[in-house]
Design brief:
The chain is mostly helical. The chain is about 65% helix and about 0% strand. It has 8 helices and no strands.
Length: about 220
Amino acid sequence: MAKHNFFYRNSLGIILILLMFICLYGQIMTGWKTENKDLAEQGQHLLSMGEYLHSGHFIQATFENWESEFLQMMLYVLLTVFLRQKGSSESKSMDEKEDVDKEPHPHANAPWPVKQGGIWLILYKHSLSIAFGILFFISFIFHFYGSYKEYSGEQTAKQLPVMQAREYLYDSRFWFESFQNWQSEFLAVASIVILSIWLREKGSPESKPVDKPHGEN
């Protein structure tokens, strides 16, 4: 019999996903009302819930944020391989090699790619950053699609010309949407890296032990 029940073993992931869906529901409801309010003011057709979920307004807003999150995580995973921050709980040791730096060796309970070796092991050794990279690319594409769809709808409603998709890819509006999120994500990561040098949260693996000196990782 397992020592802990399913929820206890997976509570962190369950709660985070639950919070994501709660916030996504809030985004849908408030975004739907906001978009219909704007459409009503312009004398245009109001959207049903189903229509809103297929609209550029919803797609752009959702994937614009997901894109920045996956970019942040991908670069953070990669940068922490090589870079250090003295005294931060988020950094590896300044001098000593750690378990994550050791070459993998096959054993009875090792993941399948480790036992298989070859190209599978090479891919598996970098699978976390690869997965975040793929998720970033997919989110980027959907963000662009939603943003272009929203832009096209606005231009059509104003009876103004609509630039082609390849032109919109270089438009300042699209990149403003990305950069405003990217900078906030890097600020958030920099905050935990730097603040964890001096501040503590007892019981959190993201914090150093409360009595550990500031200068030690």
